[in-house]
Structure formats: structure tokens, C-alpha cells
Design goal:
The chain is of the alpha+beta class. Helix content is 49%, strand content 21%. Bound molecules: 2-acetamido-2-deoxy-beta-D-glucopyranose.
């Protein structure tokens, strides 16, 4: 038992390492706060080839932390929920373990997954495990995307910079900051120019002042060899605006995909209807009204017309 725990802990640690690579199936927060191996909730750790997920090198081995589910669930009484089409959870109430398992079976052979063993009674979700896993992966990806540390950009200049070039650097810095990036502003000195570093210092202070509305200095300008630099980081309001915009863009993108997908479905439905009509006409044609050959040519051309649209929409929406 001791040995088993030690081994599990090792595996658990490597599973946590994978949080950084984004190939975990558990939201990082729950990993950080919940021990992976506890006596009350045995957690199965499985390795799977992650190549198709785009892993490289060592990342190819992905630790999948499987939740406790179905027969593995020990509690005798459970609060059961199931996701509705809107993706929110509907409550199915409190029931016995046996009832919950039967319910999952009734609902088309779905899985009963323990999602919270800390509450009383524990909460289980009836859902298709592969769909559940996909949702978790998607959430983890989104989390990673949003927490993606802002990039650090750099603008460089000489302490002898002229007004025009200064304007260009300022404009670039402004653009980077407005995108939510931190900007390292560097004044480079050559050789003995470094004795003028007070001018460089003033230059950086001026730049920081000119960008004051968008950004704050992270400390005072610092010497790095012959360089003098200061990092400007976007103010909270700027970051908030950037995040809001990103969210709005994502939403619009999703909506566009949905509309395109629905149009595609509608087009397919009318193609099917047209084919049905054509088939009916063909049947009539056999009775002498139309020649079979004419009808088939008609059918093909109308199918071509209807299928003329782009075919990658359906693929796209699931990618
Ligand atoms: C000074 O800045 C330039 C441009 O960013 C960089 O290439 C160089 O490595 C820096 N030198 C030092 C000592 O940091």
C-alpha cells in the first residue's frame, strides 16, 4: 500500500507538470487544491499516446486523470445533475446510488461521473464521458488562452533619437500596450556614449510620461550593460478592455460558425427535399410522363447547384 501510494504520488506529480503544457484533463485549480490520490476518491491515472493532440517529444505521453465514475462510485446517496442542451446543469434530485446508475443507463447508456465528493451528498453528473472529457479539455484550453501571460515587446532607440523617430517608437509602444502587452523600452548606447546615460534616463521618463494613460513603469529605468531600459506594463483598465474585446470576438466567432453551420443544415435539408421530389418525378417518368434519362440529368444538375457551397463548414465548426 505504501509503495502504491508512493508510485501514485510520483505519477500525480508528473500529471501536475503537464498542467504547464496544457495537456491535462483537469482544470489546474482543482489540481492545485485537491490531492490526486485520496482514500475516499480513488483516482485512476492512465497514460495515453497524445500524439494526435499535437504533443511533441516528451509531451507525447499524456497523463489522463480519470474521474471516479459508474460502479466505482462508493457513496450510497447522490445528488444527480445532467447538462441540458444549453450546457447548464439541470438537477435530477437526490437519489440512491442504484437509482442514479439505473437513470444513467436509461438515458441512453450514459456515464455517472462523480464531480464533487466534498459536498453532502456527493454530486454526480450523468453525461457521456467522452463528451465530458472534451468539455474539460476545452475549458482547460480556454483557461490557458486567457491566462496566457502577456507578451513582452521591445522598442529600442538611441539617446540621440530625433523627434520623428521618437514618434514612431511611441506609436509602436502604444500599439503594443493597447494589445495588452508589456513593453520594454530600451535606450542603447555605443562605446563612450554611455556617459550620457542621464539623457537616456530622461528619454525613458518622457516616454513613460507620454504613455502614462495606458501604462505604468515597473520600477525605475535600469542599466543592463550599455543599455538602459524600463518596462511599461498596461494599466488594469487597458487589460480589462483587451480581455473584454477578446471575449466579444470569441463570441462573435462562435456565433458566425453557428450561423454558417445552420445555413449548411438548411441547405442540406432542401437538397434532400429536392432529391425526394426528383425521385418522385423519376418514378412518374417511369410511368411515361418524362423520360428517365432527362430526369436523372435534372437531378444531377440540381444537386450540383445545391451542393455548390463550401463543404468545409461542417468540419470547421468541430475543429
Ligand atoms: C541591449 O539591447 C539590445 C537590443 O535589445 C540587445 O540586443 C542587447 O543584448 C542588450 N545588451 C545588454 C547587455 O543587455
Amino acid at each position: 500500500m505504501k509503495l502504491f501510494q508512493a508510485v501514485s504520488t510520483l505519477v500525480a506529480v508528473s500529471a501536475m507538470t503537464n498542467v504547464a503544457t496544457g495537456f491535462t484533463l483537469v482544470a489546474p485549480r482543482s489540481l492545485a487544491t485537491t490531492p490526486l490520490v485520496t482514500s475516499s476518491s480513488p483516482t485512476t491515472l492512465m497514460a495515453r499516446g497524445g500524439g494526435r493532440r499535437g504533443g511533441r517529444g516528451n509531451r507525447d505521453v499524456v497523463q489522463e486523470v480519470k474521474p471516479t465514475m459508474n460502479e466505482e462510485i462508493q457513496a450510497t446517496e447522490l445528488r444527480v445533475v445532467t447538462p441540458n442542451p444549453k450546457g447548464k446543469d439541470d438537477s435530477l434530485g437526490i437519489m440512491s446510488r442504484a437509482e442514479a446508475l439505473a437513470k444513467a443507463k436509461d438515458m441512453g447508456g450514459l456515464d455517472l461521473i462523480l464531480v464533487n465528493d466534498k459536498s453532502d451528498p456527493p454530486v454526480c453528473k450523468i453525461v457521456d464521458y467522452s463528451k465530458y472529457r472534451y468539455m474539460l479539455e476545452k475549458k482547460a484550453k480556454e483557461l490557458k488562452k486567457n491566462s496566457k501571460a502577456t507578451e513582452i515587446k521591445e522598442v529600442k532607440m538611441s539617446y540621440k533619437i530625433d523627434v520623428h523617430d521618437y514618434g514612431v517608437r511611441k506609436k509602436n509602444a502604444l500599439k503594443f500596450l493597447a494589445q495588452g502587452n508589456r513593453v520594454k523600452c530600451t535606450v542603447m548606447f555605443r562605446g563612450r556614449e554611455v556617459q550620457h546615460d542621464n539623457l537616456g534616463f530622461d528619454l525613458l521618463e518622457k516616454l513613460a510620461e507620454d504613455l502614462d494613460e495606458l501604462a505604468a513603469k515597473e520600477g525605475r529605468p535600469k542599466r543592463e550593460g550599455r543599455n538602459l531600459s524600463v518596462i511599461l506594463s498596461p494599466r488594469a483598465e487597458v487589460l480589462k478592455a483587451v480581455n473584454e474585446k477578446r471575449r466579444a470576438d470569441d463570441k462573435a466567432k462562435k456565433k458566425n460558425k453557428k450561423v454558417a453551420f445552420e445555413e449548411k443544415l438548411a441547405a442540406k435539408a432542401s437538397t434532400d427535399a429536392a432529391a425526394a421530389t426528383t425521385n418522385a418525378l423519376a418514378a412518374e417518368g417511369l410511368n411515361g410522363e418524362l423520360s428517365v434519362e432527362d430526369t436523372i440529368i435534372d437531378m444531377e444538375s440540381s444537386l450540383d447547384d445545391l451542393l455548390g457551397g463550401s463543404d468545409d463548414l461542417t468540419d470547421d465548426i468541430f475543429s
